[in-house]
Amino acid sequence: MTTPTRPLSLDDFRDAVAGGAVPVRAHCDRPERFRGDVAQAQWHDVSIWQVAATAHAVERDEALVREAPATGCLVALPLEGAIAVEQDGRAARLERGALALLDASRPFRLDSAGAHRMVVVEFPRDRIRLPERLLRGTTAVPVPVDAGLGAVVASFVVALGGQPALLEGPAGARLALNAIDLLGSLLARGLDDDALGSTDRQQWFERVCERIDARLGDPRLCPAELAEAAHISLRQLYLLFHERGQTVAGYIRARRLEGAYLELADPVSVELPIAAIGAKWGFPAAAHFSRAFREAYGTTPTAVRTAVGARMPAVA
């Protein structure tokens, strides 16, 4: 977590937000009068930023998109004051009670004419189960969060951002993934049935994902079996994932690694051998499991297990 001990100057603010996975440029008309605070709670590739600042703008222009490509998404949720967001030819003014999605793979702008406080969630694009064509249609569109599911999602996200220790603890991985799942459900709910393709395509995709999740530990799980179970062709299966910027194999691998990470980080499983956890989640070869885990999370299964043990109370 990054928590400033004093109000940040514009240069300090730029340095603070530079630590995110989505490179942006920050500027304002009166740099000498700028003041801001930034705090970040993070689990792996999911970050929740608490931002309080005076008037300024943050943007990714065409040049920055080319110089520093990124495939992540941002969700901006104002808590006090107002912010304006722009992307894909749309512009919206957000106040408390609404959020908006921004896609880092294309230019966007976020600015405020006055003092404000907001939460920004940063996460990989492929964690939302929506096709690219639909995701593009949801950017810079206000999504109400003052009632119903929106209020539940907003409260959950704000609570995580305000208590970074939650993401750093044993339940951090599950909490971060739950937050993104909730945001994905909220964004999908804002689309009409025709846009979602409720007649077939979205339902096909959801059924396939459910079957994958139910059989992650089965080494025989393969695209051909999934297509047959869903009563679609192998080509249709590949296309469903391609529309979402994913591959079938990549999705299965990511879900298996997530399951293994969650179990490794669970104190209840601390006595279970690491190799057994890998095998349970579809990695029968320990060396392959360790290598794939490091590639995905930048650390080893042993390091995750050690961190869990260090947080457990000593037994007298």
Structure description:
The protein is α+β, with helices and mostly antiparallel strands and 316 residues long. The chain has two domains: 184 residues, Jelly Rolls (Sandwich); 112 residues, Arc Repressor Mutant, subunit A. The chain contains 14 helices and eleven strands. A hairpin with a 2-residue loop joins strand 6 and strand 7. It is globular.
Supply the number of structural domains: 2
Helix content range? 40-55%
CATH architecture of the largest domain: Sandwich
The CATH topology of the largest domain comes to: Jelly Rolls
How would the global form be characterised?
globular
N-to-C SSE series? HEEEEHEEEEEEHEHHHHHHHHHHH
**Structural class estimated from helices and strands:** alpha+beta
**What's the level 1 CATH class of the largest domain?**
Mainly Beta
Overall pLDDT: 86
How many individual β-strands?
11
State the low-pLDDT regions, or none. Answer: 1-5
N- and C-termini, Cα separation? 32 Å
Keywords:
single chain, 316 residues, alpha+beta, Jelly Rolls, Arc Repressor Mutant, subunit A, 2 domains, six-stranded antiparallel sheet, 11 strands
